[in-house]
């Protein structure tokens, strides 16, 4: 199950600025809203849909049938890639997938319905699948 939007207004987006010296902190989605434990981003990164799916699978395996998961980010930004061994120029590459920009402070996953040790371990494992540093937070 890959995450991607049903419809997009524009096939290709501008890449947007990426200034590492100005690492802004997210004010939206920075507090737990649904579950008792959450996975919070410490650094910024662009998270692709397959990375989110890998993290979701790890969490769902650890939770079993008792726990519940919430995913608080959605990849709606298309990214493009040029084919292998193609010369420079000749326009922008074709869209290959979707990603989302995650800033420090954003809670990406929330879990509930399981004990603290299991939840922390599940979220720690999920954090290893993502391209940024993360920490586990609780209520």
Can you put this structure into words, describing what you see?
The protein has 139 residues and is α+β, with helices and mostly antiparallel strands. The chain has a domain at 37-81 and 96-138: Aldehyde Oxidoreductase, domain 3. It has helices at residues 49-63, 116-128; strands at residues 37-41, 45-48, 68-71, 77-81, 94-102, 107-112, 134-138. It has a four-stranded antiparallel beta sheet, with helices on one face. It has a three-stranded antiparallel beta sheet with strand order 2-5-4. Helix 1 packs antiparallel against helix 2 (116-128). It is elongated, with a radius of gyration of 17 Å. The two termini are 30 Å apart.
The topology string of helices and strands comes to EEHEEEEHE
Low-confidence stretches are none
* Total count of helical runs of at least 4 residues: 2
Which percent range describes the beta-strand content? 25-35%
**Overall residue-averaged pLDDT value:** 92
Provide the CATH superfamily of the domain at 37-81 and 96-138.
Answer: Ribosomal protein L16/L10
Look up the CATH topology of the domain at 37-81 and 96-138: Aldehyde Oxidoreductase, domain 3
Number of strands: 7
User: Under the CATH scheme, which class of the domain at 37-81 and 96-138?
Assistant: Alpha Beta
Describe the global form.
elongated
What distance separates the N and C termini? 30 Å
Q: State Rg.
A: 17 Å
């Amino acid at each position: 199950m890959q995450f991607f939007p049903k419809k997009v207004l524009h096939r290709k987006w501008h890449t947007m600025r990426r200034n590492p010296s100005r690492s802004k902190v997210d004010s939206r989605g920075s507090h737990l809203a649904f579950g008792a434990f959450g996975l919070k981003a410490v650094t910024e990164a662009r998270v692709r849909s397959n990375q989110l799916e890998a993290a979701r699978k790890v969490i769902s395996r650890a939770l079993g049938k008792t726990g519940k998961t919430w995913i608080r980010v959605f990849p709606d930004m298309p990214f493009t890639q040029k084919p292998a061994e193609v010369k420079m120029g000749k326009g922008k590459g074709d869209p290959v997938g979707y990603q989302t920009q995650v800033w420090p402070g954003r809670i990406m996953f929330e879990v509930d319905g399981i004990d603290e040790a299991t939840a922390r371990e599940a979220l720690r494992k999920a954090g290893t699948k993502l391209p940024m540093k993360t920490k586990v937070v609780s209520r």
